[in-house]
Write a structure and sequence with these properties.
Blueprint (H helix, E strand, L loop, with lengths): L2 H14 L8 E6 L2 E6 L26 H25 L4 H33 L4 H31 L1 H34 L8 H6 L4
Helix pairs in contact: 2-3, 2-5, 3-4, 3-5, 4-5
């Protein structure tokens, strides 16, 4: 992990503060050491035991925006967990593992860009009271983007070093999965109802819900 990324982690743990101190703890492996962190890295959402709850009062939409957001998050969870499992058991060839990692990075990046550039802007026009919440979410996106950049660099190295680079990717994805869970839980908890309460769905849903793909 680069020093910038390590510094970002330290900042994140500090921001979590005493609110997270009472929560269950797990261990996330980082490069050469193990760092204890809470299950809920930033926002206090524990990993769900089943499908995430959806706050939707809109019966008119074929699929409420909050439901589509939840489904998109579930798909991203599925992708990262599938890659982590494949890396752990090496069930796929190295080239296939690298390709899957890069595809996941592109999907998560597209999802967050769609939120930053479209969904959040539309949401704030209707609910300016959510300004601080949206700022927290955008801040999380920056943290996640830093980790994704590191994963891409490691994927490039994997074409030469193979095993060591793939192991390093696995460690990065372990930490990313914890941050993603915290971020997704916070997002669904804080903006789902507002999304279903008249937020225009103009040109951003493809990137947010379908990651820019048809």
């Amino acid at each position: 992990m680069s020093w910038q990324n390590a510094g970002a982690w330290r900042w994140l743990w500090a921001r979590a503060g005493t609110v997270l101190a009472a929560l269950p703890r797990c261990v996330i492996r980082l490069r050469q050491h193990r760092v204890p962190v809470t299950d809920c890295v930033r926002h206090g959402g524990a990993e769900p035991k089943g499908p995430p709850s959806v706050a939707s009062r809109d019966g008119d939409r074929a699929a409420a925006l909050s439901l589509q957001l939840s489904q998109a998050h579930q798909e991203l969870r599925r992708q990262i967990n599938e890659i982590r499992t494949a890396l752990g058991h090496r069930r796929l060839g190295d080239d296939a593992l690298v390709a899957h990692c890069l595809a996941f990075c592109a999907a998560l990046t597209s999802h967050h860009q769609g939120e930053d550039d479209g969904m959040f802007s539309q949401l704030l026009r209707e609910r300016p009271d959510l300004t601080r919440t949206v700022a927290n979410l955008v801040e999380d996106h920056g943290m996640i983007a830093s980790i994704l950049s590191q994963v891409r660099e490691l994927a490039d190295r994997a074409t030469e070093s193979r095993g060591p680079a793939l192991e390093a990717i696995g460690r990065e994805l372990d930490g990313l999965a914890a941050i993603m869970e915290s971020h997704f839980s916070y997002e669904e908890r804080t903006i789902s109802e507002a999304l279903d309460d008249g937020t225009p769905d103009t040109d951003w849903p493809d990137m947010v819900f379908r990651f820019g793909m048809a």
